[in-house]
Amino acid sequence: MSHPILPDPTTVRRWRQGKGDWADGAAFSNGVAITWTVPCAGVRTIRMRMLTTTSGGTLSAEFLRGLEDAATAYAENNPGDVAIVAGTENKMDVATHYGEPAIKFTFTPSGDGTLDYADCMFGY
Predict the structure, then answer these.
(1) What's the whole-number mean pLDDT along residues 33-47?
(2) 38 within 8 A of 102, measured Cβ to Cβ
(3) Range name among 66-70, 108-112, 116-120 with the lowest pLDDT average
(4) CA gap 45, 112 in Å, rounded
(5) Which of these, 26, 88, 30, lies nearest to 57 by C-alpha position?
(6) Contact (Cβ atoms closer than 8 angstroms) between residue 36 and residue 18
(7) What is the pTM of this model?
(8) CATH number of the domain bearing residue 76
(9) Ramachandran area for residue 44 (φ above 0: left; ψ -120 to 50: alpha; else beta)
(10) 3-class secondary structure, 55
């Protein structure tokens, strides 16, 4: 029996829209980090696009050894942080990916605000 969120490289997953804390219109609070774990095995590139309304912050990402938020993060070769500027579409590109099972995005706001959108896309 397979696990329902186990990534399958043959499954097309080109775009994921944020849900929960990452949903369109979600409010966030100064200094309170929100995370989103996305299965990514079988993809070559990853792009996260993000737009906030009234406040920015920092978007960081780390590859995980498993699929859960509590999975151990790899220490090396994680994407660099991206400064999120309010009112401007921001993006994080991960140009090379070597098959890690999941990537965890963390947004740490520098003020209270609203998330217009967060979308994660994959290239094969």
Answers:
(1) 92
(2) yes
(3) 66-70
(4) 31
(5) 30
(6) yes
(7) 0.87
(8) 2.60.120.680
(9) alpha
(10) coil
